[in-house]
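Hey team,

Filing this mostly as a record. A colleague (T.K.) asked me to run one chain through the structure pipeline before their review meeting, and I want the input and output archived in the tracker in case anyone asks later how it was produced. No errors, nothing strange. Just documentation.

Input sequence:
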Amino acid sequence: MDVALIQSELKASKLDGWLFYDHHRRDPIAAHILGLSDDQMFTRRWFYFVPASGEPRKLVHRVENGALNSLPGKAIVYSGWQELHKSLPKLLSGSRKIAMQYSPDNNIPYIGLVDAGTIELVRKLKKKIVSSADLVQRFEATWTEAQLNSHLEAGKRIDRICRQSFESAAEFVQASRPLREDELQDWIMAQFRDSGLVTAEPPIVAVQPNNGQPHYEPKHGSGSPIRAGDLLLLDMWAKLPGPASVYYDITWVGYLGSRVPDAYAKIFGIVRQARERATEFVQKSVARGREIHGWEVDKVARETIRKAGYAKFFVHRTGHSIGREVHGNGANMDGLETRDDRKIIPRTCFSVEPGIYLPEFGIRSEVNVYVGEREARVTGAVQTEVLSLLR
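Output structure:
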């Protein structure tokens, strides 16, 4: 943890401090930013306050009075709840406006990790609580140059595996050999391992109508057969090994035939246009130095699909933050599921993945967008049409 950097961000944000709180590891963001050990026991409430100026302060239980020993600052120790309540004013003395892992109206539930009762307790002390969402972005979602390079390298490997996966499916179909979704999924996982990639979850492999469900997962031993005439959707994400490495996450679609049916081509064309317009909006805004938020990117993509008459079939956000976890702690491109009003800041990455999900089939197209200081770019291969997989 870099106290000086946190305090610099607090001053820039005109905040008096950042109050971290946890109980039984409910807030993994706090643990990661503060650098707390994964194997340390936390069974009692603790508070850690980083003021905009001066030394940080701790409030810990006597049973676990060494819980925050790895962090700088003096500790206040309590046993009973009454003592905790009496100690909080001392912990927060000199502050008025403080950040916590809280989101007004729960607009960003990924940040709203502090329980309502604790928020009430702090507010009783006449403290104004604001969301730490943008602070969290700066410490959890921004990438180093090494992380960007790991993303780009993972992308090269995943793009290759994606192409090979479609080729493998086509070979099975052309040879009239049986192949199920889960079998292709297992094959992809083997390619990840052989290519030095790791992932927390296996990829999505889905033929119609299964690809009409955005988070469809084939069951082992009972995945749908992949056959000639099928629309095959592949959504795969992985990263290089290592604690600081970051994910690459894409979705492509291919048709197991020689000529893509008009219905598939039409829907893909709409999805592609939504993806391109959202991406261009980000690129132009960043180039002009214009501040934008996650919900605005979602609005651009969603409006494109609405005008085409398919609004009710675009049932999820346009994109998500990407980091050490495939769903990172930065701004999501979301104005539907939540209203993500976090700023899109430099050195962050996110997906742009609009989709249309009909009862008969679904199509999604996903790219990753990395934002630099004055430039935003797509970091890997870009699909421009449904792939024709058979000749």
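Quick notes for T.K.: The longest helix spans residues 145-174. Residues 293 and 343 are 4 Å apart (CA to CA).
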